[in-house]
Each structure stands twice: as structure tokens, then as C-alpha cells.
Amino acid sequence: MNEEDPVQPEDIPNNEKQENKRSQGAVTINVGYLKSFQGVLKFVEIVLLLLAFACTSSGTPFNNLLRNYDFFMFTTVFPWILCIIIIILYLFCLVDKVPQINWNLTVLINAVIWFILIIISSSLLARDIGNLEDLIVKIEVPARIKVGVAFGFFSCFAFIGDAVIHFLVIRG
Asked: MARVEL domain: from which residue to which, for each copy (predicted)?
């Protein structure tokens, strides 16, 4: 073979072909992540957060009476978006493209931070609802807002589960 002749595809071993395919930007889909416990838990977080902010977000005059409503909405919508981004990163194996980041530690820290913020915001909103119902003039807060707060608390359990799973993965 001359030095001027290009390397033919049949001359490249199989494992080098796969490395070349990855380096050319081919994205593989990791369906196994969605079936794994981590993927299912992340999907549960997305559903619970969606239910939490969907139940509380529909227009109502009570939103102005609830002082911590905006904080609750922030702490349910923002992590919902982040959870979707994390699922996309794992689903399309994009976490493998950036090995410099410890993704398990990143998701662990993310889960702990959002657990703390969501439990605080859910507690504050639950207190606001209780304060409205304890007034001399009884104000009945719609049940959907109470259900949204309940889903906020439920999402906390999902985030704690996520943090524990990633902690165990880090510990080996």
C-alpha cells in the first residue's frame, strides 16, 4: 500500500470504526436509562412537579392572597425544566461526551438543593392556606391549590430518593 493511498474502511478494526462514529458526532439513544431506577425516578419527579405547578397555577383570585405563591411556582417550574434537561442528557448519552463533569455528584447536589427549596416553599404555601382559612371571614381555598401543595411535598420524596440513589452510585 502506497503512502498516498487513503486508508480503506475495511482496513480499520471494528472498535476504531465505532470510535470514529462517536467522534463524528453521532448521538446514540440510551433507552435503558428510562427503564433504570434512576430514569424512572427522574420521570416521577417530572410528573409530580408538573402536577404540583399545574394544580396551583390556574388563574384564581387566591394567588394574590397567598404570599409564597410565586416562590412555590419557582421551586416547582424551574426544577421541572432541569429534570427534563437531565433526562435528555442521559437519554442521548450526552453525559458521556463531557466526562470532565461528575454527573452523579451534579445530580445529587441538584436533588438535595431542590428538596430543600421545595419543602420550604410547600410548607410556606401550606401555612398561607391555613392562615387564610383561619381568618374571621372564612376564605375557602380551592382544593386544587391544596392538592398542588401535596404534590410539592410528594416531589420532595422523589428528590430524596434521587439523592440517595446517586449517593450510593458515588460510594460504589
From this structure: 33-171
**161 touches 41 (CB < 8 A):** yes
Question: Mean pLDDT throughout 138-164?
Answer: 91
CA 45 to chain centre: 6
> What's the CA gap between 81 and 99, in Å, rounded?
23
Which H or E run contains 101?
none
Report how far residue 138's alpha carbon sits from residue 105's, in angstroms, rounded to the nearest whole number: 47
User: Of the candidates 167, 162, 154, which has an alpha carbon nearest to the alpha carbon of residue 42?
Assistant: 162
pLDDT of residue 151: 97
Question: Cell 398561607 appears where?
Answer: 128
In angstroms, rounded to a whole number, what is the distance separating the alpha carbons of residues 125 and 65? 11
pLDDT of 23: 42
Q: Do the beta carbons of residue 33 and residue 39 sit within 8 Å?
A: yes
Q: How crowded is the C-beta side of 159, counted as CA atoms within 13 Å?
A: 26
Looking up cell 375557602 gives 140
Residue 5 vs residue 150, higher pLDDT: 150
- Terminal C-alpha separation, the chain: 49
